[in-house]
Amino acid sequence: MVFLAGGGKSDSKGKRSLTCAVWEFTLACNLRCSHCGSSAGQARSNELDTKECYRLCEELASLNCRDVSLMGGEPFLRRDCFSVARCVKQLGMNLSFVSNGTVLEEYLDEIERVEPKVVGISLDGMKENHERIRGKDTWDKAVHAVEALRNRGIQTTVITTVSKVNFKDLPKMKDLLLKKGVNWQIQTAMPFGNFQKEFTLSKEEYYATALFIAKERIRNKFEDLPVVGAHCYGYYSRVLPGCRWNGCQAGMSSIGITSDGNIVGCLSMGNNRFIEGNVRERSIIDMWNDSDTFGYNRKKELMMPGSNCSGCRHEPECKGGCNSVSYSLTGQFHNNPYCFFAIEREQGI
Amino acid sequence: MNLSGAEARQELGITDEDVARIRRSERNPNKLLLLLVGALASIVGFLLGYVLDMENHIGYPYASIGLGASVVALKRRRHWLALIGIVVAALVSFAIGALVADPPNYGLSPEYSVYSKSKMMRN
Question: How far apart are CA B63 and CA A47, in angstroms?
Fold first, then answer.
């Protein structure tokens, strides 16, 4: 069910291969979503300029990075979005966008020309709850954006971030998206950024959501509705299919880049403590190949499991699940309490 | 307010039958693939036995081990069950070897078979 991030392996010279760069292209956003992990709104005062973005693209290409995802904020609010997108493509990397869908229709021609691998559109429930989270008059625009992309033959993924607010909308959303030619990614909102902890799904609700994903994957033909759970859904279930997990990939095969050039393992970690450096001061190639960076996932002595995972027979492989979930819920890495294996054990499933 | 597991499943329209179906899908990831790989492994195992000793039918244990290995490969999360499967398959094939072989030799070469020893003793 989960995105099983593979890779994270090093070559014969000990260099790790970078698979995916998730780039907060700007923090500027026209929405103020109540669950936004980045607390997006205003652009950062010192965001990378276009030339710096080009240089960063070249460095990513020289690391043989395979996928670059431009997100935000709202990436299409930056005027040079498509110049940088073209640069990504010209350097031979796969390009994707993540957007809230509200301004996208103005840029459809340019999106089509730049040939992204996929465009992700956030749709957080049916109209009422989506707009409760994202603001008035946003649902219709997002739905139209999905339709417009699909009509142009651009691969589209609807991204739904689930919390107590929109949990019950999932079956209706399935009906909305079925046979529409889109992918559906479901992920769980975690308490960082704007999101209030009280709206976090309980373990039971989280597990039910995972069952829902599994049910829809079995019940529907894959081409009718390819539905996947994100990295927050796992691990080692005895009931749910496809739950192997070989550890958090932050700094192992993927990185996050903030709009002011800071490098982190994952943008969802949302804490300045985990910044490895800034591309204005140091090449991303150096940072990636430095044996002292991303220690929480690369150095065994820093990877001690927390109380939720200590003693678990899957811990040596799983390494405590998704670190952003783990950190946001427990304040430490390698200690993710939202774990299928643990929940099933607790509930006697 | 937190929903209980049953309430949460109900809200999402998940029935007990759905859960049972999910369980089945996890335990049988791809029956056809399992069958094909198992059959292929069995053929390879049998051919190996055929090359080594056609008359004594020692291919059967090889075949079963091949089959068992494919079970392990496909169902890596059920190690103990796969191991028991290999042992049972090996025993069954041994028994088949003993019945089919002429003289019956339990998969061992004739000089050391129980049958040969008893025959030698009688002689």
Answer: 64
- CB of B29 closer than 8 Å to CB of A222: no
Over residues A303-312, the pLDDT tens digits come to 999 999 999 9
pLDDT < 50 stretches in chain A: 1-8
- pLDDT tens track for A64-101: 999 999 999 999 999 999 999 999 999 999 999 999 99
Determine, for residues B8 and A204 on separate chains, whether the beta-carbon distance falls below 8 Å.
yes
Give phi and psi for A254, each to the nearest 5.
Answer: -140, 155
CA distance A195 to A165: 11
How far from the centroid of its chain's Cα atoms is residue A189's Cα? 11
Q: Which of B54, B62, B116, B68 is nearest to B94 (CA)?
A: B62
Provide the pLDDT confidence category of residue B31 given band limits of 50, 70 and 90: low
Taking an 8 Å cut-off on Cβ atoms, the answer to whether B18 and A205 are in contact is: no
Across the interface, whether the CB atoms of A218 and B8 are under 8 A apart is answered no
Backbone dihedral angles phi then psi of residue A278, each to the nearest 5 degrees: -125, 140
Distance from CA of B82 to the nearest CA of A (A): 16
Q: Whole-model pTM?
A: 0.80
Query: CB A241 to CB B26 under 8 A?
Result: yes
- Whole-number Cα distances in Å, A176 to A1, A123, A221: 21, 11, 16
Q: Is A181 helix (H, G, I), strand (E, B) or coil?
A: coil
Sheet with A254-257, strands from edge to edge, namely A227-229, A183-188, A156-162, A118-122, A94-99, A67-71, A20-24, A254-257, A262-264, A277-278
Judged by DSSP in three states, A190 sits in coil
Contact B51, B63 (CB under 8 A): no
Using CB atoms and an 8 Å cut-off, which of residues 82-101 of chain B contact chain A? none
Taking alpha carbons only, the member of A82, A74, A66 closest to residue A25 is: A74
Contact A34, A124 (CB under 8 A): no
**How many other β-carbons are positioned within 10 Å of the β-carbon of residue A226?**
16
Contacts of A175 (CB under 8 A, 6+ apart): none
Contact present, A162 and A210 (Cβ < 8 Å): no
Question: For residues A214 and B22, is the Cβ–Cβ distance under 8 A?
Answer: yes
DSSP character string of A130-167: HHHHH-TT-HHHHHHHHHHHHHTT--EEEEEEE-TTTG
- ipTM of this complex prediction, to 2 decimal places: 0.86
